[in-house]
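Hello, quick one for you while I still have it in my head. A protein chain has come my way and I'm curious about its shape. Can you walk me through what the tokens say about the fold? No rush at all, and the record is pasted right below.
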Amino acid sequence: MLTHDAATAWMARWDRQQEGYLPDREERFTALIDAVEALGRPDPLVIDLGCGPGSLSARLVERLPEAEVVCVDADPLLLGLGRAAYPYLRFVSADLRTGGWTQALGLERPVDAAVSTTALHWISEQDIKAVYAEVATVLRPGGLLLNGDHMDTEEVTPALSRLEYAVHERQTERLFGAERPEGWRAWWDAIEADPAFADLNRERSTAGGDHHSSESHLLSHHVRALREAGFAEVGTLWQRGNNRLLCGVR
């Protein structure tokens, strides 16, 4: 049985391993939530795309306690962890790559913001176009798509792309040096060995929860997909190296 206390401890460990790849993770969270707050509603309706165990959504509700946040992911284990750690959030199991996924969200009004962090790059360039197109159908006019992730510019600016990567690596070295936090694979190996997650691990194995190899890691992939989906304005709100917060305005 997965208890709230055990889930909270696993979440702390999750956040720490994520920081090893994203030394500016909290700063990016803050910038993203600033943008949602700037919409001017104390009770925005937000969908968290590829929410994982809910780190971003938990911080968003902490800042905006009247917000309604719908957390969407396809990984049974991460959803189970999030439900145990954050019982006040609403988690929905849905695969963003499957058309019509927004119908499972139970939305009663247009969405003010669709947000995501370190998730959408796992989706292929072709599939991300469909994801953004579907998001556009539920966003209100002036609503935001906010995607925080590593996005490279190597297609058109190879020298700048190398510099962006170098800036990210220098920041990581300053914060952690040789003592890097636990890695992604080590975290998964550990949680798969925890008996409290046995049922969720079996469900994950059946569902094929591992990430696929086809990715949309280039900034141009996301800018092009947002423009094709009808977003009126697309640009970077925050950036450090190749770690950026991309914004599309509906």
User: Anything to note?
Assistant: The chain has one domain: 4-249. The radius of gyration is 18 Å.
